[in-house]
C-alpha cells in the first residue's frame, strides 16, 4: 500500500516540489482499480519550494498515472526470432546479458561494449553507471543524452568561468531583476512555473526574448513593452556580436569590471569591429534599432535593479552552439553581470538531473566530481576511492553522436546498454540511428515502457520509476534534492542499482557495487571530494532536514548558492573572454515563396510532451491534447505551396521524410517551419535533423535543418 512522500517531479530540471499521497480509490477498503483503466495510485499535489512555489505544469500533475499504467513493462522481455518480446525470468535475463558482454569482449575487445545513459538518472545511478562501464564492462564507450542537451553551454561555461553550473545563482534572484534576456528558451512551455520568476522584468518592460517564433514566452514581451527579437534560425552568434558591438561603441561596457575580473577583453573589442548593427540586421533579419535598444536596456538594467542573460537550447543546439553560448557569456562579461549579487549569466538546464547527470562520470571524458578522465591526479583520486589500480580505468570514449554512428560498425560498439534515453526518437538523423540499433549483436534497454528504442532491444529490463526509488537529483540551480520513495514497485521490477550490482558480481568486476542509494551517495561524496562539483559536505540527513545544498559543497563548508562572487574558477580568478565569430552559415536571403524554395526547419518542445514522448504520449490527458506532430508554417509559405488548413504536408531532405498535418501560424517567420520532436514514426522530426556536430562540444545541429515542404496529395484529413 502506498504511504506517500515529499518528492520532486520526474521530468524537467526545474524539479518542482510535489507531495504524493495515496489516491482515494486505493485507500484501504476501496479495492484495487481494474488494470486496464487503472486510476492513479497516488495523488500529486504541488509543494511550496523556491523554484515552483507550489505550482506544477500539466506534465507534473499527471505524472503519477504512469506508475500503474497498463503498458508498463513489469518483467524482463526477450525478443524472439519472430521479433516478438516475451517474458523471461531475471536469472535468465542476467545470464543472457553476462553472456553477451563476455562474448563481445572476447571477440572484439572491451570497447565493443557501449553504454548510453541519461540526464534523468539520479546522481547515484549516473555515478554507478560510469563506474559500471569502466570497471565491470571495462569499456571507455560511455556517453549520454546530455550531450544533446547541455554540452555546448557546458563547454562555453568551462572555457569562460572554469566551471559549468547551469544557473550560478538561486532562481529567486531573478525575481527582482529589471531586465532578463532569454536567448532561444521557451520557458512558458518548457518550465511553466518558472515564468513567475520573470514577472518583475516582464511587468517593467525588461523581458527580451530572441526566438525565430513568437513562442508563448516571446508573446510575454508584449505585456510590459519588452522586446521580441526574431532572428533567422542559427544566426544568434551574429546577433549577440551586434548587441556587444553597441555595448562597446556606446560606452556601455563596465570597464572597471573588465579590468578587475576578466582577461582577453581587448581581443574581444577587436573581434566586434565588423558587427555594427546594420550589418547584423542584414545577417539576422533583426532590425538595427532593436539591436541597439537591447544593448541599452541590458546596460541600464545592470546599473538599476539587475540584468540577467539566460540561454536555452534554441541557441545552443547548433554546430556553433559553443561559440554562440560563448558570445552570450562575453556580452554578460562586457556588462559586468557574472559574479554580481543582483545580475548574472546562466543556461537553463533541461532534464530532471541534467545538472548532476553531467558531473559524476557518465560522460565519455569524465570521472566523478566533474573530473577529467585524462587528468592523472583525477584518475589516481578516483582509483583510490574505487580501490583499484588506476590503469584499470579506461581513457576517454566517444561523444554520443560518434558513439551512435559506431553502432554495429567494425571497431564500433556491438553490444549496447541503454539507461534512460530513447535515441530512436531523440537522436539526430534518427533513421540512421535505428539502422545502427538494428545492426547490433545485442541491445539491452532498461526502461519502464516499450519505448521506440526498447522495441528494438534484444532484451528489455524493467526498472523502478521515480516514485518507487530513493536518491538525489541536482536541479537547474546546482541544488541537490532528495527523490523519495512513495510506493513499492511492481514485483518484477528492479532498481538499476540492483541490476548493476548483480551484473558486476557476475562479471567479476573489481571494487564494490552497492544497490543501496545512500551507500552509493556516500561513495559519490568521496569520489567527488576535491573536484569541481564537490558534494563531499552533502548527506541525506541534511537534505531530509530541508537544508539547501548548492555545490560546490566541500566537507566543512556551507555550500555555494552563488558562484563567482569572489572570483571565477580559473587559477587567476579571472573569467576568460574567448573571441568568437560566425563561420559559414547560409546568409538570410529575400524570401521568394515558391514550392521549390528550401525552408529552415526548427525543432523544439510543446508544453504537454516530454522529450521523445515515451512517457507523456502514454498519459491519456496529454495525448488527447497533443496527439500528433503538427508542422507549424506561416500561412503565406503554405499558400505558396498550395497547402491549406487541415492538409497534410511532406517535409523532406536527403536524410528522410516526415508526413504530418499542418498548423498555420502567422507568428513564425516565412522562411522557417517548426516541428516538435516528441513523436515517432512518420512524424519524427529527427528523421530530418543532421548528425553534424559542434567541434568543441559534440552537440548535434538540432535547431536548423534545410528542408523542402510540399502538400501530401494522397492524404486527406480524417473526419
Ligand atoms: N514541455 C516540455 N518541457 C521540457 C522538455 C520537454 O521535452 N517538454 N524538456 C526539458 C529539456 S531536456 C530541455 S533541454 C528544456 C529545453 O527548453 P527550451 O530551450 O526552452 O526548449 P526548445 O523548445 O527546445 O527551444 C526553445 C526555443 O528555441 C527556439 N529556437 C529554435 N531555433 C532557434 C535559433 O536558431 N535561435 C533562437 N534564438 N531560438 C531558436 C524555438 O523556436 C523554441 O521556442 O526543456 C525542458 N522542459
Ligand atoms: N530534434 C530535436 N531533437 C532533440 C532535441 C531537440 O530540441 N530537437 N532535444 C534534445 C534534448 S535537449 C534532450 S535532453 C534529448 C532527450 O531525449 P531522450 O533521451 O529520448 O529523452 P526521454 O524521452 O526523456 O527518454 C528517456 C527514456 O528513459 C526512460 N526513463 C526515464 N527515467 C528513467 C530512469 O531513471 N531509468 C531508465 N532506465 N529509464 C528511464 C523513459 O521512459 C524514456 O523512454 O533529446 C534531444 N533531441
Ligand atoms: S515544470 Fe518541469 S518539474 Fe515542474 S511540473 Fe512541469 S515538468 Fe515537472
Ligand atoms: Mo535537454
Automatic annotation (TrEMBL):
Q: Which domain of life is it from?
A: Bacteria
One of the Pfam families matching this protein, by short name: Molydop_binding
UniProtKB keywords: 4Fe-4S, Iron, Iron-sulfur, Metal-binding
Cellular component GO terms, alphabetically?
A: membrane
- What positions does the domain 4Fe-4S Mo/W bis-MGD-type occupy? 2-69
GO MF: 4 iron, 4 sulfur cluster binding; metal ion binding; molybdopterin cofactor binding; NADH dehydrogenase activity
Give the start-end ranges of region Disordered: 345-365
CDD domains reported in the protein's UniProt record: MopB_CT_Fdh-Nap-like
Q: Which GO terms describe its biological process?
A: respiratory electron transport chain
Q: Where is the composition biased (Gly residues)?
A: 347-356
UniProt xrefs under PANTHER family = NADH-QUINONE OXIDOREDUCTASE SUBUNIT G, RESPIRATORY NITRATE REDUCTASE
| Designated name of the protein | Nitrite reductase
